Structures are given as C-alpha cells and as structure tokens.
Amino acid sequence: MKRIVIDTNVFISALRSNRGASFRLLSLVGTERFDFCLSVPLILEFEAVAKREPGIFGLAPSEIDDILDYLCAAGEKRQIFYLWRPLLKDSKDDMVLELAVESESNWIVTFNKRDFKGCETFGINLATPKEFLHQ
Questions:
Q1: Taking CA 37 as the corner, what is the angle to CA 31 and CA 43, rounded to the nearest 5 degrees?
Q2: Higher confidence at residue 123 or residue 118?
Q3: What's the pTM value of the predicted model, to 2 decimals?
Q4: Which residues lie below 8 Å from residue 103, measured CB to CB, with a gap of 6+?
C-alpha cells in the first residue's frame, strides 16, 4: 500500500475549494487507497495556517478542529526521534521530509516539488495531488 505525507499547502488548498484534487485527496484519507502519515508538528502547522485568518475558508474554527480531529483519527501517527535538518531550504519542509523518512512513506504530496529537491536520495517520490491521484 502507498504511504504518503501531505504538505500543508495541499491541506490549505483542500480547505479553499471542494472542487480540486486536494479536496479529493483529503476526502480519501481513511479509505483503503493509501496510508496517510502525520506527526504532531505537522498537525500543529495545519492548524496554525488554517486558523491564521478566521473565516477565510468559510469554516468556523470548530469545523477546522473537526477536520483535524478526523485526520488525527484516520492517519498513521508517527514520532520523529531524529532530525535531518537542515537539508531543505525551508525548515517547515524539513519537518515534512523527516516525517516521510521516518514513516517510510513512498510519496510527499505537495504543490512545491522543487522545494523538496534532495528527497529522492531517500527514495521518496514527489507529486501534486492531481499527479498522485492518477497513480
């Protein structure tokens, strides 16, 4: 089974519109299609970015909490005991890569593939939500 880590930009894109590949991907979390891996720092980043500007997505904070609670219940929780930092340009991207390495994920799903240059050395593939769904 495919194991994936979803970058924050994909999560935010799914909140913005229910018509795109990001929303479809998030809708498939908890199904048998793939295993979604997460960590406390990643969920906290999802929450911080989603709640940065209240109401921007047309969701109440409690609705964002419900979505995050579902992701936590459906996802494979991982703890990071080591850091590969600094490997990528952005330390928040390093956090995503560390989770992918620790969870032995096959994929990082992101819109910023060039920001993850170097992750191929760990055997991790990069894809946008649309590319991943076509796999």
A1: 110
A2: 123
A3: 0.93
A4: 3, 5, 37, 76, 78
pLDDT of 83 strictly over 80: no
Residue 100 pLDDT level (bands cut at 50, 70, 90)? very high
How far apart CA 14 and CA 21 sit, in angstroms, is: 8
- Antiparallel, parallel or unpaired: β 76-77 and 3-6: unpaired
The full length of the chain comes to 135
Q: Give the chain's domains with CATH numbers.
A: 3-133 (3.40.50.1010)
Output the CA–CA distances (angstroms, integers) from residue 9 to 5, 22, 82, 92, in the order listed: 12, 9, 24, 11
Contact 109, 6 (CB under 8 A): yes
- 3-state DSSP assignment of residue 46: helix
Contact 2, 134 (CB under 8 A): no
The H or E element spanning position 6 is: strand 3-6
CA separation for the pair 87, 107 (Å, rounded):
17
**What number of other Cβ atoms are within 10 A of residue 22's Cβ?**
25
